[in-house]
Amino acid sequence: MACLSSEEWGIICDKFANAQNLTDVESKNDPDNDPFRSKYKARELLREIYCSLKSFEAGETEEDSDQRPEEQPVDGQPDEGICRGFSGDSRDGLRAAKLGVVEYYLGINHVETEELSAGQEHLMNCIKQLEKCRVSSENVSLFIHVRNQLGIIWAGRDETDTAQGFLETAESIYQRYMKEVKIVFELAYTHTMYYLAQVYQNLGETERAATYCHSTLQRQLQLNQFNPIEWALNAATLSQYYITKGRYLEGRHCLAAATVISGLAGEVPSEAAAQESDMESDHREQLRQKRAEIARCWIKYCLNLLQDAKKLLEDTIGELDTDCQEELKRARRHEEEEEEKGRKIALLFGSEDTFDSIASLEEKVQCLFPLDFTEARAVFLVGQNYVAQAKEYFQMDGYVTDHIEILQDHSSLFRALAFFEEDLERRCKMHKRRVDMLEPICNDLNSQYYLLIRRQLMFELAETYNEMLDLKLTLVNRQADTQSLDNHTIKKFNHLCSASAKYFQMFLDSLCSPEGKLPEHLEEEVLRPALVARFRVARLQSRLISSIPPVQLDNLNKSLENYKYVVQYCEAHPEAAPAVETELELSKEMVGLLPLKIERLKARMAVNN
After folding, report:
1. Three-state SS for 314?
2. DSSP 8-state secondary structure symbol assigned to residue 397
3. What is the sign of the dihedral through the CA atoms of 574, 576, 579 and 580?
4. Cross-strand partners of 314
5. Are 126 and 103 in contact (CB under 8 A)?
6. CA 444, CA 464: separation in Å to the nearest integer?
7. Which of 76, 210, 470, 501 has the CA that lies 20 to 30 A from 204?
8. Looking at the whole model, is its pTM more than 0.70?
9. Residue 85 DSSP symbol
10. CB contact at 8 A, 531 and 579
11. Per-residue pLDDT tens for 331-380?
12. Any alpha helices (H) in 267-372, and if so which ranges?
């Protein structure tokens, strides 16, 4: 085979450097009407390099050709592929690697110009060249990168099994090479782990995906190869997986790390500078948005921690089970010891510069379930602080849906905290705070554009007023019977009762046709809410206090009508019964009892007349 002279090799190197400059630098200045101009020029240079290398390969003797090993596929047989072929630093090994490099960059070039099929072909040609030589320090990075790129292409086509094959082969090559040669190509392997996390997510293997994502984030910190804002948002997103699994230690750690690392991106100016460029403006806006999104993840952490604690502590009627509370408090010391053990074995984020800051932030909010009002309030205050931060960016003007979701989370924080409050008057005030923040929004929203959100708000307001009503009734029962209620108390009681019924009815009206009729068949997503709303309206109508018999009769008739609807709908649609089992049983009972009560009232009215 003819060998390249130093002059010829220098020309090839210059062309390659020019191609890289066109791709990485000049392409950023390409006009909008010709966005790939520089990349196309780079492609031509790469093709010239490839032709030059092939022309020297054409001078290979028959003896040289006979010495070339039989090609063996690496993917699917990673252990064999690593061992076969020419030595990486031999003449033939270097020649194959050089052609492989050019094929790789031609592949990347076509992918970046959105010619994926051509890009895939060049990347596969790269693999074919690499199959002619063994993995070595000169080519192992290329072995991994080309499979990473093919994994990305196939994952983008939703061919996750094929993508998995390429990426797992890349992982296998890395593991085998590290074992045998002990030379680190950590960044390429980090990319492999990152892409595998996405593939496992698409395959539904969420726990495996989370493990790979966590390891990827840790490695990026160790290698100091990360964008602070992107890294922080990925860590915050990972926290949501841990939260849904009840793993609050890991969830808190991810969020604390996200908050600290996002701070490395710098401060957000309070106002845009007069001389601010478009790029600076975009960067400032991105910082504000991503930090607000991280704040929303913190809100979910606090809310879920409180809600899961409530589920653990509530009795069969939804009140605090004090026996359970005392038992859990006695077990708290053991939980704290387990938390400390968990921290020691957990894969913690951070470097020498950030570890203390992350640990300090973690100490500001607990990861164990709050067991009393004091502990719950501490969690609530952290969540409320992040509500304020998130609302600074996601304002009603421009981010209607996001702003309302944050308000709903704030309301849910109050509801969760109220469970721990023993003073019923204070608990009622917490629910009043929920009404005050949601009612104006509900009434102002345009039903045409925000129908689903309005339905959510209507139902929540109805339930909130109902909870306040139950609390007031409990307070009244503790103080005196209903016969001795003063006018102020009766007025307050009826106001809460009517307000709850009003919002339940508004919810039901939103399901009606333009003619004002409920659909004969309720869709699955509104089936239970609609039947529960009917049941609650029936119950509320019968609870209204009045000294006027005709008003009493009207309330009872309306109550009976709604109870009948629940019973008759479930008789006509038996499949609906399991969704409202308790409500249906009580409705049947009231359909039997209320007519007797109505008749007795009519009889008294007849006697008095």
Report:
1. strand
2. T
3. negative
4. 320
5. yes
6. 19
7. 76
8. yes
9. S
10. yes
11. 887 777 777 666 656 667 866 678 888 989 999 999 999 999 999 999 99
12. 278-313, 322-330, 332-345, 355-362
- Separation of CA 18 from chain center: 43
Mark out the alpha helices in 451-523 (DSSP H runs). Answer: 451-479, 487-509
SS3 state at 133: strand
Residue pair 340/291 in contact by the 8 Å Cβ criterion: no
pLDDT tens digits along 468-491: 999 998 888 877 654 567 888 899
Instruction: Pull the structure tokens for residue 371.
Output: 């067991």
Q: Using an 8 Å Cβ cutoff, are 40 and 28 in contact? A: no
86 DSSP β-pair partners? 133
Report the first-to-last Cα separation within the chain, whole angstroms.
122
Backbone conformation region of residue 351, classed left if phi is above 0, alpha if psi is from -120 to 50, else beta? beta
Q: What is the token pair recorded at 390?
A: 């998130």
| The pLDDT of residue 514 is above 90 | no
Alpha helix ranges (H) inside 113-205: 116-130, 140-156, 160-181, 186-202
Q: Which amino acid is at 300?
A: K
Q: Per-residue DSSP letters for 220-253? A: HHHHT---HHHHHHHHHHHHHHHHHTT-HHHHHH
Report the alpha-carbon distance of residue 47 to residue 442 in Å, rounded: 63
* Structural contact between residues 407 and 456, judged by C-beta atoms closer than 8 angstroms: no
Cα distance between residue 509 and residue 195, in whole Å:
48
Beta-bridge mates of residue 549 = none
Cα distances (Å, whole numbers) of residue 436 to 425, 439, 470: 16, 6, 18
β-partners of residue 133 are 86
